[in-house]
Write a structure and sequence with these properties.
This is ABC transporter ATP-binding protein. By secondary structure, this protein is α/β, with parallel strands linked by helices. Helices cover about 35% and strands about 25% of the residues. The protein has 2 domains: about 170 residues, P-loop containing nucleotide triphosphate hydrolases (Rossmann fold, 3-Layer(aba) Sandwich), CATH 3.40.50.300; about 70 residues, no CATH class. The strands form 2 sheets. The protein has a 6-stranded mixed sheet with strand order 6-7-8-3-9-10, sandwiched between helices. The protein has a 4-stranded antiparallel sheet with strand order 2-1-4-5, covered by helices on one side. The longest helix has 18 residues. The protein binds adenosine-5'-triphosphate (ATP).
């Protein structure tokens, strides 16, 4: 269940975060976050509920503004980008959110075409068809092309959601709790898909989760968010080789394959 070694370019961070601070009223959620995501890397961000994982993703994608610190994404200073440049940058990032639901009234094909037609002006019918076929093949669901989302299982819907994100060829993937609400076997299939996406699309990914099986299977590196900072960063065994009483229960109460 250990993750196979990936090709990672440690000279090329695609996301660089320095000394990031974010409070909501009196609640100091992020207290000086430093983080690099390297080209080709799967980085898992682990943390209990309410520790600020989603806030971090929103800051990276420019949906929230920090109190201080810097965020560089694909060579862009996110905090100084105008709306248009931010939109252009977001197209280079694939968001796989828990609630990124499919459109129930559209077939799988139409769901997949939607981001293409919206974001790629002048794309031809042939290019659309090729892209749809290619991402469906990537998530091993070619046979569902004419089905409605209601005819798919939870795991299949999750895969189609990932395919819809991949269709724009993102350089960075942000997965927010990719295995939430799925049975253990389907979780493992989604973890395997995350690794296949890394290899096939050469993406760099941040995977937010509190599922340790997911962390172990998909993470080249794991960063544990505790009390507003990344207190432990390393591979799975390094992160959990500690007697830190804030970390141990996290491990003890998770089911590890
Ligand atoms: N827009 C907001 N206004 C006020 N408080 C917020 C806002 N967004 C997040 N928070 C607070 O910041 C904290 C961190 O929230 P966040 O959603 O990042 O947690 P999380 O680590 O993703 O948790 P979970 O695993 O449950 O999704 C929470 O206490 C939340 O209430």
């Amino acid at each position: 269940m250990e993750k196979a070694k990936a090709q990672i370019n440690y000279d090329n961070p695609v996301i660089s975060i320095r000394n990031l601070e974010k409070s909501f009223g009196d609640y100091h959620v992020l207290r000086g976050i430093d983080l690099d995501l390297f080209q080709g890397e799967n980085l898992v961000v682990l943390g209990r509920s309410g520790t600020g994982k989603s806030v971090l993703i929103k800051l990276i994608s420019g949906l929230l503004y920090p109190d201080s610190g810097s965020i560089d994404v694909l060579g862009n200073d996110v905090l100084t980008l105008d709306t248009r440049s931010l939109q252009e940058l977001r197209i280079r990032i694939g968001f796989s959110f828990q609630n990124s639901a499919l459109y129930d009234s559209m077939t799988v094909r139409k769901n997949l075409e939607f981001p293409l037609v919206r974001n790629k002006k002048g794309i031809t019918r042939k290019e659309i068809d090729q892209s749809v076929e290619s991402v469906l093949d990537a998530v091993s669901l070619s046979q569902t092309i004419n089905q409605m989302p209601s005819e798919l299982s939870g795991g299949q819907r999750k895969r189609i959601g990932i395919a819809r994100t991949l269709i724009l060829n993102p350089e960075i993937m942000l997965y927010d709790e990719p295995t939430a609400g799925l049975d253990p076997i389907t979780c493992i299939e989604i973890n395997e898909l995350i690794n296949e996406v890394q290899q096939r699309y050469h993406t760099s990914s941040i995977i937010i989760t509190h599922d340790l099986t997911c962390a172990k299977m998909t993470g080249d590196r794991i960063a544990m968010l505790l009390d507003g900072q990344f207190q432990r960063v390393g591979n799975f065994n390094e992160v959990f080789a500690t007697s830190d009483e804030r970390v141990k229960p996290f491990y003890d109460y998770n089911f590890i394959q």
